[in-house]
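Progress report, Aim 2. The chain analyzed during this reporting quarter is listed below.
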Amino acid sequence: MMGDVDTGTNGNGTEPRDLEARRAIEAIVMVTDEPADPRLLAQLTEISADRVEEICEELAASYRDEGRGFELVKVAGGWRYQSCAEMSPYVERFVLSGQSARLSAAALETLAIVAYKQPISRAQVAAIRGVNVDGVMRTLQQRGYIAELARDPGPGQAVLFGTTSTFLEKLGLNSIEELPALGDFVPSPEVLEALEQGLLVEEPASDPEAVDLTDSDVDLRDDAQTGSAVQDGMEPDGSTQQNGSAPIVDEEPLDAMAVLADAADGAAQGDDEPGSA
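Predicted structure tokens for the chain:
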């Protein structure tokens, strides 16, 4: 047991306790498939958690000073080994393109909303995106990036979702507070003004050859059209007449009683004339 090892070296050449703890921590972090919790490392190495943190920081500094191709970093509250960012071109050559399933743009957008607005319900995510997110949320939950945190105390008690330690591990973050501020992604006032100017629709330039008709020109055109209509046998009011004939005048209907009276007067006058039978 490490508790029986002295802090110095004994007659058999036993390594110092800190050196053995450093090697034990390296071995444990190397084989674990997720960031190693300092409290677990402290329990396994039988030293304090604060001392585990110090040893891990010392190891990380020594790797950087030696220019190693890997580094020891703290993510999601634990320590893990990962390749250096400078070695990413060589790692990309090793990893075949398309070998790992990537998240779609819709999934990344949904995951970003959950990360910045957690805890948040599925309906709230759908309201922000404006589309149904049931399938995307289910995919993110199956991948282990989001999980159910609690239930809304309001009506319906909707399930509230949030990100997991796997999400932090994939992004290389130690806590959710290390996410970049949303203000960093908002365009500056100069950019917004340029965008507004680009969206403005310019009015078409006036044609110098275009004829500007005034009211007097319109009146002259109307008079010309009226004269042409008269020549063609059409009256200005819309009535027509035949060439060389009098215009047709609407007559009032005849009164039958007046006609009979005129006929009786004519007969009487004929009897009064001399020489009538």
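The longest strand covers residues 70-75. The two ends are 172 Å apart (CA to CA). These observations will guide the mutagenesis work planned for the next reporting period.
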